[in-house]
Design brief:
The chain is of the alpha/beta class. It has two domains: about 130 residues, no CATH class; about 130 residues, Cobalamin-binding domain (Rossmann fold, 3-Layer(aba) Sandwich), CATH 3.40.50. Helix content is about 55%, strand content about 10%. It has a five-stranded parallel β-sheet, with helices on both faces. Helix 7 links the parallel strand 1 and strand 2. The longest helix has 20 residues. It is globular. The chain starts with 10 loop residues before the first helix and ends with a helix. About 10% of the residues have low confidence.
Length: about 280
Amino acid sequence: MDQRHAFKFDTDRYARAQAVFASKREIFAEDAITSLARDVINCLAEEKSGAADPAQRTGRRSIMPQMVDAFCDVILGHDPAAPLRFLEDVLAPRVANRNDLYEYIACASRELGAKWEADKVTYLQVTVAAGKLYALVRSVGCDGAERVHAGGRSKNALFASVPGEQHTLGVTIATEVFRNAGWDIALMIDQSHEVLIDRAAAIQPPVVGFSISNSNGLDRLARLVVSMRLILPDTVIAVAAGPDIDKDMLRNVVDLDFVLTDAENAVVELTESLRAFETG
């Protein structure tokens, strides 16, 4: 472990999260990317991340404004790896717990949002910066006692169809297969983005599974996954996709743990994933 601080950071996850977020700019329309950037900045600015426990916060008196300014400048800079280095080398040695790191991310997000509203940053700057903020949350994650969700790491999951999805038979059948295998599944069909996020935040499932039948809903799926990653950094996210969706393209533009092919194999894969988490 790095002796400068007591935290662990996942550098591979950071790099992948940035790359996947950047790939969205090549696939989705500008308004979809703008919505994603706003989701990231607003969620983090409002401190809704799953690792930010109000009972454990030390309060903003421990946050140094000059460090927030410097952090924001680094996030807006051209070096994609610099924000994580700043978090590791500059901020982590100065804070008491992981929630203080989230507080700095929240403060930087608020500052970036203010710059955006004041037209002090360009569309490209803010969307790239949002990708870095998202990647930081993916890298920081949770560990130790913080990693235990409200429902534990038992066989609990939230299954949902992507908003606007018309074909819901598959996710309904998958729910029954998982329930027969001893899983406790919360099934949500034909719900809005906001309702799904609020439900996930309330029950904190260790696994979330989405169903999407065609690529028309890919931007909505990507937005859901980004929001889920921000509020539940360590939750396993899986997607069951229709046969006409290019699975490699899906993996490249959406930050997924699993792309599922059938319910029976999915039970095995996700059960093994939980077991690996508990023993790792």
